[in-house]
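Record type: monomer structure entry
Structure origin: computed from sequence
Chain ID: A
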Amino acid sequence: MTKAELHEKTFLLLLVLVTLAFGCVLWQFSGAVFWAAVLALLFAPLQQRVLLRCGARATLAALITMGIVTLIVILPLILAGLALIQEGALVVQKIRSGSMDFGAYFQQAMDALPQWLVHWMTRFGLDDLPAFQAKLTETVRAGSQAITAQVVHLTQNTLDFVIGFGVMLYLLFFLLRDGAALTARIKQAIPLAPAQKDHLFIKFSTVVRATVKGNLVVAASQGTLGGLMFWFLGIQGALLWGVVMAVLSLLPAIGAALIWAPVALYFLLTGMLWQGVTLILFGVLVIGLVDNLLRPLLVGKETQMPDYLVLLSTVGGIALFGLTGFVIGPAIAAMFIAVWTLLAKPEQPLAG
């Protein structure tokens, strides 16, 4: 090994170690850094338009863009979060007091089953309904206690949340103001051909924008529609269930149906036919139509990924990274496709 090669390998090792150490330092605020970067990427076009109107005064343009982001994104999320906490606490209180007894609801549904179905359940050893009811009640009670524990945990760590939120806003300002220059420096440091770097950066930004905007629009639409229908039908905790449907709608095709379908089935089994039929028709024709129309249009079309890959990468991303995985998963899948596409083009060199 020559002295030059030793210097190069030592420098690369130092680069890896310093990068890992810096990642460990920022790990506590990884969520804040991630969402600051996502918001900066989403609102970069708006920042450019504001910058043109401000006469190239980058700081003023970033402040104006920050104000717009706060009004249309951050403030509504805070208000929705406060309403959700209040609604969730009310539902937990009703479960504990017994006024909302899921075990009783289940028993009512079982009593309404036809005899042939009861006979079939008995044949396969599924007739121990009291034990199943007790298990369901215990599961719901444990779930409510877990929700309560999470609310208490969130309250006890309010300071950490406020600090993380402040870090996100602070970092978002600088990413809006200096994002273009920072991106140029990162692109310059990557040892790839200019055309390849442009392709990968464009692909990454397109996928992140499409995934966030598309999934949030679909989630907000399905959650709002589902919550309004639950409120119309007189179901307790309509706001809470609407938010749950919005979160579950991040799972393509099946998400919101995991909530409204069992409720519709309960209505049908207990003789509330018009409520059950109304909820099924609304769920299939309205809530389902939102997913079938908007998601391919807003996510699949822009990312140029097939629906099954969007589904797999979204579910896998959420399983690995939590809620932020609905962005990270499709982004990784898109970069996987982009890199292998570049590799399949021998006319484009892999290094510049």
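Annotation 1: The CA atoms of residues 112 and 271 lie 8 Å apart.
Annotation 2: Residues 30-189 form one domain.
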